[in-house]
Records
---
Amino acid sequence: MNSQTAIRAVPEVAASEKDMANAIRALAMDAVQKANSGHPGMPMGMADVATVLFSRFINIDPGKSDWPDRDRFVLSAGHGSMLQYALHYLLGYADMPIDQLKAFRQLGSRTAGHPEHGHALGIETTTGPLGQGISTAVGMALAERMLAARHGADIVDHYTYVIAGDGCLQEGISHEAIDLAGHLKLNRLIVFWDDNSISIDGPTSLSTSMDQLARFKAAGWNVQKVDGHDMEAVAAAIETARQSDRPSLIACRTLIGKGAPNLQGSEKTHGAPLGDAEIAATRDNIGWPHASFEIPDAVLSAWREVAVRGQAARQAWERRLASSPQRLAFEQAIGAELPGTVFDALAAFRKTHVEQATKVATRKASEMALGVINDATDLTVGGSADLTGSNLTITKGMGTVAPGDYAGRYIHYGIREHGMAAAMNGIALHGGFIPYGGTFLCFADYARGAMRLSALMGQRVIYVMTHDSIGLGEDGPTHQPIEHLAMLRATPNLNVFRPADIVETAECWELALKSADRPSVLVLSRQNLPMLSQAHEDALPSGCGAYVLREPEGPRQVTLIATGSEVEIAVAAAERLHAEHGIAAAVVSMPCWELFEEQSPAYRKEVLGTAPRIAVEAAARHGWDRWIGDNGTFIGMTGFGASAPAPDLYRHFNITPEAVVEAARKLI
Amino acid sequence: MNSQTAIRAVPEVAASEKDMANAIRALAMDAVQKANSGHPGMPMGMADVATVLFSRFINIDPGKSDWPDRDRFVLSAGHGSMLQYALHYLLGYADMPIDQLKAFRQLGSRTAGHPEHGHALGIETTTGPLGQGISTAVGMALAERMLAARHGADIVDHYTYVIAGDGCLQEGISHEAIDLAGHLKLNRLIVFWDDNSISIDGPTSLSTSMDQLARFKAAGWNVQKVDGHDMEAVAAAIETARQSDRPSLIACRTLIGKGAPNLQGSEKTHGAPLGDAEIAATRDNIGWPHASFEIPDAVLSAWREVAVRGQAARQAWERRLASSPQRLAFEQAIGAELPGTVFDALAAFRKTHVEQATKVATRKASEMALGVINDATDLTVGGSADLTGSNLTITKGMGTVAPGDYAGRYIHYGIREHGMAAAMNGIALHGGFIPYGGTFLCFADYARGAMRLSALMGQRVIYVMTHDSIGLGEDGPTHQPIEHLAMLRATPNLNVFRPADIVETAECWELALKSADRPSVLVLSRQNLPMLSQAHEDALPSGCGAYVLREPEGPRQVTLIATGSEVEIAVAAAERLHAEHGIAAAVVSMPCWELFEEQSPAYRKEVLGTAPRIAVEAAARHGWDRWIGDNGTFIGMTGFGASAPAPDLYRHFNITPEAVVEAARKLI
């Protein structure tokens, strides 16, 4: 168990790697101490594994951290962020000087509490919420195989390495991820499990008796177990894993806080500074006489050599790409720039259907729009969490991704909403594709953790969420979303689209595709909806978030605001208000609150008008007061739904044109 | 694979059981056909297993469906609800006459699309969202062991049986549940896996290669595999499972839609009616000449005998209870009625701390209140998803639940928020305990699916969610809730409490304990908060949802509304407005929106006042327009958080007394 035993066997190489690992330990404990906040235990425990991985295997180039064929490194145990920041400093990332480590967890520093994608170079994904990293990595490893299938091993040929902790493996999402990875034989995925038998509450034996190796083996993984402080054993395991035809788990038996003489092996090193005395004792214990944040030149040079190896690999790759017949196609894919023909085709599609007054469910409209989109570009990659025939997410000729066969464009994600969302994050982060995936809106609940990360990372992931209200009917309240629109709309940096007809659906698809810096959710009906748009427009009215769909002849007496399937109800109510009561009602369709919020106050005022307002949405009121104002009325759900045919439910819950008419007459 | 082979071996008994199973098949296919909606495949596939289970093993009494020591049956594959309704009709549940089956999935019927607890007698838990049933059952099986440890096997001695499908086992939550159950050796839990190799998209081989038996074995389960149409094999497996010292999985190889000659084995039977022709062919094929919804007397009698056996078991149990020295204690536990001493002690606690002006984080205040509560009653059972030292959910002398030792009151749920929430649902549904469990508020995301079911089922489950805002500081945006309060407040039938000091925290705990018909979420700060309450009151001001904490001397010029840690900011702003600008500002503390919404309009008007309003909450604005009105101002978060010490973050995001003062001056 003592790393020094192994090190003595091959002194020249190992002595240097031992120092390299101790540099990580020292930086981690010193930075956490200075911040008086953070997690030293994991970086110290996994320093040996990380050193072997980076010094001997990983191909990354700190000078060009977004080189497409680089290996991906994911710190799934994100609380050990100082491992990553120490590595980045040691490897010479330009944005990670020692001062950044000294500013660990301080306002404005790049060294955030948990690694954040986009916050510092080379952070492949945001981690911290446990289990997300390993699950996102599955998407990266899948994207790599899919891109290789399209452009060849000469230019796409890299590994995805993950460090995961006990927490990652206990979280349910890990089950979805490893099952999918094992099934699809994602053999470029190599996961190191920091098997230190410690979680926050104490020994892991307080809460689990899982045989993780047997578990991963059951999921079709190659599994190995090593002493995580035996560098040669770790290296041999990585070699073996790289040759496997399956994804690999390497269980690394480690001591948390390794090196701290009095605290190693204890949960006390997990999430708190070691304290000055123990840090001094650790320096003695590991033979690290250097001052805080000081790394000797020899150690730094050893680390910088790793970067040189990566640079050479990157340059060799660039030469291969330059002479590859795939060059243009690859660059277009990696740029993920959609050709204008996609949007031309969507415009023609909208024109055709408004003229034909096509009446379909918006989930069906989405399928039809996807047919156009998927024909016009290869960038889109679809899927569903085992609801393909309900979400209508597959289109003709996509081809299915299958174990060992990655040429297709459609992924059967299985009954795994959370795993799907995380995999889509990984696909988007990897580059080369625009992922979309379907489930019922209600099961956004299951995917929440990863959906939030889509938003936090600003990734173009498109969620196709059908069966969006009581309109789904008989499946009942467990399947009927009530609070879900509020949950999604309250999430920052996420566009939530709820289109009212096939034209708006195509517009919302276009807006989602063009939103390269954020995820989108398309919220779609199960039931048929009539054509409400009245004429073709080149501009996208949905792009303003809300717009006046029906303006009455005289001055407005009431404004009816609705989304999705309830716009039909608002239009019917407006017609009856006019015909039966001589009341002038405008109808506003509001497919996207977020985009409406971004419009000018003048535009918003114009759309909302000064007349009293009524909102109609078959969901919770929460949030609607923003638009209806002090004297407004909301017509929607006040509790959970029920099981019955959809028309019965709309009547039962009083979400009808009659109810709107009555509310309008009361209001004015 | 043909069930008739086994049946021929023991003709008298088995012939009858074959008919009993076919009765389920017929009722399921007929009811789905009549509703033109539903899932016939699972009930037909699992009819043989269900018949063996109910006819030979399960102890339930349809005449007294809530008898505490009954076996629990959970249909985790809830889409197969017709299996349960058919069983209930056949067993003679008074609320399930044949007319209910004829009204399957219709408005007002008890035969909802998915089984709903409280909707019909004997439905132990609401299922439909996949994986919830099996995970809730873990809580039931744990509660059984815990109750048995307290009151003895003489009066607590029952099994929890689960039918789960491929979907249940693919969902991540199943991993959390089976790991916990295996670890705790919950040997009264027996799960039948409907191993039919079919999911909605087609064969399960489209998305999984999991060796489920190896997986469950890795989690410490007893595993068996049988032909699910071989009734004797199923019975033998159940016998073996009942003797195991571990939870048991019985993989039942079945044909989905078994009996339908042209469709069995196909995903086409999963979620759609078979059609009249195939139903007629099925009648021929299984030898069931009876008309739709008609069950011959002989078959019905055979089923009713099962109920008689259950009735006898119940009566024997009642005799044992009547003569047990544990009787009183058991009845108090099962009634879950809290003694008044709990609330007396909480009142004294509040009085002491308001007098001492105790300044603590509300998570600490919660721990202190829990100390009082847990001393005064044994009903509470606590736990945390591996954040015990952060959530502060354990109190002195609780004792820990451990494998084979169920005398303790504290559960180390592991890093399993979703599994914890579902287990708490199961504990509450089982009866005998009031469960509470902790995690960070941000990780409500992970538990959403089960939390929604707490609300839908109206169960007294108490979520202790700490680290409730940017106030958690350095961990950064992945750990800082923004949209979570909106997500929870938008959920029907859920009380969300965000107390401002130790007094409000104790009040909110009392309100949560008294809310027997709904779950509660206690949203608590990491950081210290001052005493804001000014004098002891016997009544609970928090019980009104919101109340005036500070009324200015003159007429109000502005009303500041805040919750939790931001009430301190509002109070400081009010003092400065008065002292520096002579502005009369009231401060409203609003710990619970839901309870405030339930007050009279007059009370609400009085609290909110007519002066302009400013709300302060370190979270998303979404929903706040309800309280601030058209001319109000919101001071809070507009995007994700950041990693830094908490005071820096409050300044950075401009959630400060200065910002409130400035907004107030602008507003008036």
---
Amino acid sequence: MSSDRLIYLPLGGAGEIGMNAYVYGYGKPGKERLIVVDMGVAFPDMDSSPGVDLILPDIQWLKERRDRIEAIFVTHAHEDHVGAVAHTYEALQAPVYARNFTANIARRKMAEHGHPDDAVQTVGAWPHQQGAGPFKVGFLPISHSIPESSALVIDTPEGRLIHSGDFKIDLTPGVGEPFDPALWADVCKDGVKALVCDSTNVFSPLPGRSEGTLGPDIEKLIESASGMVVATTFASNVARVKTLATAGEKAGRSIVLLGRAMKRMVEAALETGVMDDFPPVVSPEDARGIPRENLLLLVTGSQGERRAASAQLARGKYQGIEMKEGDMFLFSAKTIPGNERGVIRIVNQFSELGVDVVDDSSGLYHVSGHANRPDLETLHDVVKPQVLIPMHGEHRHLREHVKIAEGKGITGVLAVNGMMIDLSGNKPTVAEYVETGRTYLDGSVQIGALDGVVRDRIRMALNGHVTITVILDEDDEPLGDPWVDMMGLPETGRSNAPLAEIIEADLAQFLGRSKAATLRDDDKLNEGLKRTARQSAQDEIGKKPEVTVVVSRLS
Amino acid sequence: MSSDRLIYLPLGGAGEIGMNAYVYGYGKPGKERLIVVDMGVAFPDMDSSPGVDLILPDIQWLKERRDRIEAIFVTHAHEDHVGAVAHTYEALQAPVYARNFTANIARRKMAEHGHPDDAVQTVGAWPHQQGAGPFKVGFLPISHSIPESSALVIDTPEGRLIHSGDFKIDLTPGVGEPFDPALWADVCKDGVKALVCDSTNVFSPLPGRSEGTLGPDIEKLIESASGMVVATTFASNVARVKTLATAGEKAGRSIVLLGRAMKRMVEAALETGVMDDFPPVVSPEDARGIPRENLLLLVTGSQGERRAASAQLARGKYQGIEMKEGDMFLFSAKTIPGNERGVIRIVNQFSELGVDVVDDSSGLYHVSGHANRPDLETLHDVVKPQVLIPMHGEHRHLREHVKIAEGKGITGVLAVNGMMIDLSGNKPTVAEYVETGRTYLDGSVQIGALDGVVRDRIRMALNGHVTITVILDEDDEPLGDPWVDMMGLPETGRSNAPLAEIIEADLAQFLGRSKAATLRDDDKLNEGLKRTARQSAQDEIGKKPEVTVVVSRLS
């Protein structure tokens, strides 16, 4: 009989930034009672996931152990932490625990999917502890960029764990509780077995700056503007939304919120009473009656998303509001790697409109919500864990964070998605490798990232598509000529004759010299037609298209 | 009778970075004799041009005026300036003039396309001037990052123009001639009508640093490494390749070149005698016999390109060489916006291998080849043009550069692709708007960017593809049921039955209730089938696929 063990298993977020989902378990091997921390999404891109709507963690491992899941704890209301709770609710059926604001956002998501309100339980902050099987879990306030962001204090029979959640060390964070070193020292004073820790900014060498430092510079910038000012940030960066709105109010401007996410976040913050000094807001309709030099618009689309308010303003109008020469557009956000092209596109569109664009290159109008390297070290020093397990980072971030830990004499564990760590006893070990991956929300369907569906779409995007239709009569003889339809391919190539006709001629020739055995055999016939069409296209246009063969037999 | 005029017309490169192609003309309106400066390419991306191999300027306007083109002058051998000469040679048939190194590279391209060697004429540097109709054109050396980079001095009946080409102000550029302020002052002393000027780094506020400052830091870095060192930069950044190789030699390492472009560039530089102190190079085969701590590999793929040497090393092996724990990989290059994901991918792969990656975030291992804002102003001050026309920039760069000019009392002209500027007389005016655009090299075929071919591919990538096959008998009655093939779509959706079967059932129903008039009419039938299939998919999987309808009539 093996004895009880304490395990940690990242299913998402360790080896990537986004899609956070971490499992803790305690019990006999293979029978551990489980809790899940966060259930977030990642965002698709054209390179690797065209047409996909959202990326969810692959929760197959959890589904197969559904009866062992005690609860899901959500640290804060950012999409990469809470975005998948409703998408996975049916499969997991586990209660979701969160603080008031996070729960409000989670409940909105549940409602959209028709799940019950009580799927999400509101719990108070530390020192309250929520029991969950062998675990007791407390929400320990930590500063980030959204209300009520919390680390989790996870008490286990093997000792106390701290799961940092997303954080920065900020004494004036604007929204959410300031980092409280005394409280943290007290919580950690009797020893912490392991700190599972945010790694996002491990490569940023300087101490992070406080959200509180931004207000005056943004206010000055807005005051300097002679036209309308439009500012964008992540709607979920509620701290920034408030910083911007407050600066705008001080500069004598009326605040307008544009974009659904922007309105939803502010609404949730007001509803839950976590942001009661937000300036009054005017509607886009009322804004039209206010001189443009008295307006500050806060809009979605800081990453250049094509459908967001910022991109629509850049293309022309949004909700009756138009930007004009002399207006100012402020990016109070960092461009996430991979989004540069979209952002540059709208900057150039604003340039064409004569709008002055201000970005964060001066360092005055944006600060990160994550702890830089010295701030990570501050947390290490406060928590003094036996073991440090970096999370919320790509492989390079985790590796660097482990190096820092080891440099300070803390045991560092580089655990990527699927690597189950046994934290029992004094030396963490790899207990098992679990198959993990990504699930795509594609339209209304969840598909596996490796199912081949998206791979086929990428191939069609690269190579175009040809449909071949052949009709065979009762004697398996071709009835008429083969027929070709193309999509995403040039109409003519090297010989200047229509490409479809050239392929059709080659296919007819292939059928003409095919033996009866081939014509009778669907697989052989398909294979031969496909190969012929691809070769024909290669000769003519230098490209081998994807091919669909439709053989209709009248027999 | 209108009088002669001097025109400037960008066909590529003004309103984008890449694909440079600028036209100058002199003569009666509509009868100007023309010269073209540069004929470059841009690079495709998955977002907007999946499957495309290269992007060329649309030269339709030039083709229609082929008999009026005197010559094409190429300022330097970077792909965005020389990359399209061979692709457009047949259509334009104009002689190409360039200095020795640039001509060597251009001739290699011509040879690959089977064009004659004498398509490219080698000309000497200033004070030599090449006549071209009403123009006399001189190659005035200017520092950049590739040998023999030159501005063009274009003498016209309306006065002297300076086309800067790509440049930085560098007194120790490593390769190519140092910037020579005295020579430039002399050339410009009698007045310059217009400076057409690189704008790439107009937003960089600090003076640029010299290539010559990098060597010692790179040497120190290589000396600090205990394993193999691999460094990547653009192969066409010949200055950097030399800086790296020299630093490696000083650090006691043997130099290995990996990647075709890397070898080709060094070969061309040695062949033309513009880089005679390049360290000796060992082959990848011989490198295997040398201890890894004595090796410096210079490899292609600084932008994370999947097929380049760096990406292959990150995935495992390249030409028998493998990277190992403790090796170092240096990015001596900037990541071009849009390439971040590819670069991050290989950084993480190296991290998994235990390879330490050093990038340019310290500012020690890379400097730009373009003039920063103060250096642009230096050139303005030396040239003292009446008019400044920014080029080689997106709209935002051109706009900012115009602002700088106007701030100094120089007339600034914001001319984007297709905007023909009349430079005659004392005040530049817009003479005409010319249709311009992009031509895609797609496999072996050139297609218009707006032909719809690539748009269809993008749609298939986003929405998947459905083929519908229907056979109608002699009486226009369906023979059997409609048939559906899918590509890039999930097999099942909401109802858990196979999606293809659900669509087929809906199509059968549609055919069943279609009147004879519809069944007889190809357009109506196609339209109805397509609409039915898309709606059926929307209900089932929340996505409307692209559809190819094949109706076969046995009549």
